[in-house]
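Collaborator request, handled under Task 6.
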Amino acid sequence: MKITDLQLSEYGIYRGASWQPSTSSLNVVMGENESGKTTMLRFIRDMLFGYGRGKWQGRKGNMAFVRADGQEYRVFREEKERWFENASHEKFSEELPTLWWHGLTRSMYEQIFAVGLEDLQGASFLANDSIRSRFFMLQGGDKLASAKKDIQENKEKLFVASSQGKRKINQLMADLDTVNQELDHLSHQEKDFAELQKKQELLKKQIRELEASLAKDQEKDRELSKRLGAWEYYKRARDIKHQLDLSSQVKMFPSNGKEQWNQLMNRMKVIHDQKASLQEKLDEYTPKKKEDIIPWAREAEALEKLYVDLGQWRQTIVDVEALEEEKENWKLDFVNLGYSLPLWDRALPLEDACVHVDWAEGRRLAQSVGVRGNELHFWEQREPEVEAVAEEAADGDIQTEEDFQQMEDMASSLEQLLHQEAEIRGKIDAASQLEDKKFTFWFWLGILSMAGAAAGIASFYMAMAGTVALYGAAGGLMLGILCFLFNNKSIHKKGNDLEKWNDSLASLVNERKAISDKFPGQAPEDIDDLQAFHNLMQSRRSDFYKDQAKRQAISWKRETVRKQQLAHQKWTEEGKLLREKKEKADKDWDAFLAKNKLPKTSAENLSALQEQWQKIYSAEGKGKILDLRLEQMDARLDAYSRRAESIISKTKMPYTVDPDGIQELYEETHARSLTWQSIQEKNNQHDAYRKEMGKLDDGWASCQREMDTLLHLVNAKNAEEFAEKVNAHEHHDQLTKEWEAVKQDLRLYAGSDEEFQSLWNFLESGQYDDWMETHQNLAKHIKEETASLGELQKNQGAVENEIFRLAGDNTITDTLQKKEKIEAELANALSEWLTYMYTEEILNRAQAAYESGRQPQIMKQANTFLSAMTRGKYALRISEDGKDIGIVDSEHRVKEAKIWSSGTGDQVFLAIRLAMALSFGEQLEPLPIVLDDIFVRFDEERQRETLRFLMELGKTQQIFLFTCHAQTMRIAEEVGKEKATGEFIHLKSGTIELGA
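Structure tokens returned to the collaborator:
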């Protein structure tokens, strides 16, 4: 198909734009950045293959095209709506790739037909199975590749070679392993039953021993509980006896001592209450220092000074931003300055754009180039005349000794080829008489291998062996296939040899025929003609020697022009010297330009070059001035930042090091100063409370001294002992009566005087804590023994239940049935997997044979394209798998891809892609070829030769060449005028203009 009309109704920057590209010449489209070139490229792809997912909004357009059979169509894509019409406006809803191009995807189209600079390098696309199936195979090859892909997917659904695989065969093998483990476990049930019976007897013994120990501990605990019960009576008696002892210690006590004590207690209570009230006030507030409120108080003066400078700081930041914006604008203007200078015509680098140039040396070199050019011009005008020599024609067909020697060589080659043909015909006749064999040793060995494989599979299905037998069967099967292949090779050896000899014979006949066509005379047809041929050659030799004698007769005529030739030779040598000087002057001029990073131009443009360089130098100086100003302002900002950082770091607060942070810190400092003033008032009140607390402490100490005097009178250590002794002294008679009563109660609890005395002595030992600890330990031990007894009884019940369960368990029977089911499913799955594996191997061989029918033709055409683009300098050499690509130069030297220049690599891969695209057109239908900026790595000569080739190819194949370089468009227009072909389009901000 060829595109005849593009209508961009609403697409990117295009609105109502249209273009009718040429169908019989190369379409060269030039657009600078942001001109819509990339949008136009995307529009062509979208019209062919549709919009990408979610990329249809606001896109409307249509494209007309004509197919190879002359039928005209137009495809419409209005956002989500899509259809195409024929010339009769009959609508169709199918997608073009599915309908006509055998499922060609957008990705495949972009790898072969739509080529950008980044797509050229590398030959990985040649090994892509989907690419090979559609471009290296005949029509329908993609179906074979699709079938192969389906086979691989089905095979992988059944089995993957991984221990973590979750496919059907992997899962069945895992289930089979699990079932085998279950059977191994169930085979130990009888042993488990005997062990359970032993465990039951052991549990019964442990229960009896634990019950006896528990009864003994309970009896001991009851006796200890009785003794602990009498302890309460004993404590009461001990308290009464203590009071009696205290009463006996009081010898002298004043009559008003108790009243003095009570008054003293009241005074101390009042002081205590006052101290407690005052302490609450003291505890409510803790005095604070100024450093607690304003930790950075020492930096207040520095903060105040920096706060005063905030206006200058902020203004400096604004000035820096303005300068940085000015610097960015300068960078953009400086980079684009090169495009405005005709001699540069490229973007200028920001680093080392302009170096110091010795223009005096440049003028000297330019003057030298002009002088050498003038000398060469005047030398050409002084060329001496040399008269032509009129020679008499000698008799005979052979004029030179080289022609005669060439004829001798061809005669020798013809004789040698005839002898070789006779020898090969003898071999063919001998081989034809040999008997054909149908069966060899390899055939019977293959039969045995197949039988072994069948036996292994039978063993696996009959469960006579495990998966090892299956793997053995697979190995035997593969060995059998190899044996049959060797047998096939052996029985066809005769045919292969005959075919090889016939090919060699045909090659020799063709070679002899080629020599015969060039041979000046009657060439021999077979070995019987050699005698007559020898006679003919002898006659030719005689004629040649006679002709040489005649040629010697005319040699004297050449002497007349010898002096003229010597003069011309001297003139030639002078010209050679002048050319060398001119080349040296040109070389020195080019070295001057390269040394000073100046664009290549002729010496006559020196003045313009210096003027344009001065513009660059001035622009670069402006940038340096901006850098100096920025450096000075950055130093001021750094000084402000260091002052701010020094202050903020001492505050230990998360303020930013900028004017806003300093202002926030200043405001925070002011607020804290106000807070400190109120805190000072609270600190003064707290000091008053502390002084009042000191007076109360003095009153409390006075009361304490009076209390010590009263305690000394009754020999008491503290207030509690004082109260006890006073009370005991007042109630001495009552305590005596209570002592007799409690002794009587203990005697009744004991039962007899003897037991009372024993119990009293036991209680007087004072080991109540030990008795209580023993009682608690016994209670804890009894609880633990009770829990252990319950656990043992529970285990005994569980063991008895397990014994009962094992007696009636049928699990092993069910597990064996499950194993048989898994083995049957595994056998079926393996059979299916082997079928897929053999089918895949057959498809691989069929695909290899299928590809071989087209690839050589594509590579041959790619070689023709490469030769045309390089003017015969390089020829292509590629391996069968497409992974190794090389080229051969005109001197027959092989160059691998790793030593190619980038431009040579682009030409090689462009030639291959163009050959594949044209091959696709021969099989199915030609499609437009889109080339996007592929000349970036080409020098001018390489661009010119490639454009000549594309101009010729564009006459039959529709090609779109997009570029953003004016130089490429200029060369294309020059080549177009030379070839009288080509259409040139300019894109400018969404508009399409036809070139002149």
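The cover message to the collaborator said: "The CA atoms of residues 30 and 966 lie 7 Å apart. The longest strand covers residues 2-11. Please let us know whether this matches your experimental observations."
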